[in-house]
């Protein structure tokens, strides 16, 4: 499921109706996405790396969280709280002496949460002409009020082109998170016996199948396999449920 995550996002964007009501919203009440853009440069020093000179993954994650928090705060004008991190990718290493360019921008803002996309590029001063894309992640932030309840957030207005693509992909990732939350929170008696497959519910069915298998493993009144005939090849067959 993790390896097919990118393909699942593409399928959702191609075959499903992702809520896109930008045209119906009041532009005067929307915050331009470019206003939330943040870029920071960090120099990798020896304390940031292991004995082989590779940067600690946790250090990069901390830097990424910093720029993502700043981007989120530019939308809500308050201190945001990190809620979840979606699909953190370590695409390549960086070493001591590298300069890391960390970029963050709010991709989409929902009623009570916002998604911030972060990417990290590495280069060595004077030695490389192109930057290497080494890390990326999507972080979800909320803003809590005095009662620790999520506040309503302003809408985001994406830039045409890549901004609108990131906006729609953020909606697709939210759908996956909600499907996953629904499957995990379901009680055994609430699980459907059979759900017809459809491109629009493939994410839901993937998590449903995994959850059903986990429930089946916990049962002790079924036999995994049996040997039908010793003279024949061994056959794996469920015999009792």
From TrEMBL:
CDD domains: BFIT_BACH. The keyword Repeat applies. SUPFAM superfamilies: Thioesterase/thiol ester dehydrase-isomerase (SSF54637). This is Acyl-coenzyme a thioesterase 11. GO terms for molecular function: carboxylic ester hydrolase activity; long-chain fatty acyl-CoA hydrolase activity. Residues 34-147 form the HotDog ACOT-type domain. It catalyses: butanoyl-CoA + H2O = butanoate + CoA + H(+). Coiled coil: none annotated. One of its GO terms (biological process) is fatty acid metabolic process. InterPro entries: Cytosol_ACT, HOTDOG_ACOT, HotDog_dom_sf, START-like_dom_sf, Thioestr_dom. One of its GO terms (cellular component) is cytosol. It comes from Lynx pardinus (Iberian lynx). Keywords: Cytoplasm, Fatty acid metabolism, Hydrolase, Lipid metabolism, Repeat, Serine esterase. Pathway: Lipid metabolism; fatty acid metabolism. It is found in: Cytoplasm.
């Amino acid at each position: 499921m993790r390896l097919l995550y990118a393909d699942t996002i593409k399928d959702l964007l191609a075959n499903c109706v992702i809520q896109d009501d930008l045209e119906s919203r009041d532009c005067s009440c929307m915050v331009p996405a470019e206003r939330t853009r943040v870029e920071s440069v960090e120099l990798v020093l020896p304390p940031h790396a292991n004995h082989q000179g590779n940067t600690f993954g946790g250090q990069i994650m901390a830097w990424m969280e910093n720029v993502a928090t700043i981007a989120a705060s530019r939308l809500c004008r308050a201190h945001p709280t990190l809620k979840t991190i979606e699909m953190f990718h370590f695409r390549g290493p960086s070493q001591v002496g590298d300069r890391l360019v960390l970029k963050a921008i709010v991709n989409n803002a929902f009623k009570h949460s916002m998604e911030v996309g972060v990417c990290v590029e590495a280069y060595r001063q004077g030695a490389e002409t192109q930057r290497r894309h080494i890390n990326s992640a999507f972080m979800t932030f909320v803003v809590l009020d005095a009662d620790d309840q999520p506040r309503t957030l302003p809408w985001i207005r994406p830039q045409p082109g890549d901004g609108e693509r990131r906006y729609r992909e953020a909606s697709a990732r939210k759908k996956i998170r909600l499907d996953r939350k629904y499957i995990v929170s379901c009680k055994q008696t609430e699980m459907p016996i059979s759900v017809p497959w459809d491109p629009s519910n493939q994410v839901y069915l993937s998590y449903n199948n995994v959850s059903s298998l986990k429930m089946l493993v916990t049962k002790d009144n079924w036999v995994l396999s049996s040997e039908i005939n010793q003279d024949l090849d061994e056959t794996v067959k469920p015999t009792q449920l």
